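Protocol step 4 of 5: obtain the predicted structure for the target chain.
Materials: sequence only (see below). No template structures provided, no constraints applied. The aim of this step is simply to have a reference model before the mutagenesis design in step 5. Sequence pasted as it appears in the construct record:
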Amino acid sequence: QVRLAESGGGLVQAGGSLRLSCAASGRAFSSYGMGWFRQAPGKEREFVAAISWSGGITRYADSVEGRFTISRDNAKNTVYLQMNGLKPEDTDVYYCAAEPTGWATKVGYAYWGQGTQVTVSS
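Step 4 output (structure tokens):
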């Protein structure tokens, strides 16, 4: 079992930056692919970014490509999402998730964190 806990959300003005962190417990963390998703009220959860077990492969949603960077530090059991150039439409609850195959996929996530709120003001 993997347990995930997000942190780093908050309120930021448009154009600003935030770094989200996801701390994982579980002995197999380094073998999991990790992803970030987001969900706004009344909307479906959407994929944001993913990273393979080693960090060698990353994948991004078109809406965040070039602005967000996903990374991981397996020694710290932590995955990050650096968000630059934030826009009001980035306002969402952001969720960290773990994927057992270890690849940077968009589906197949088995474990989810509780979410952290990101609010971007105009």
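Step 4 remarks: The longest strand covers residues 18-25. The chain has a mean pLDDT of 95.
Proceed to step 5.
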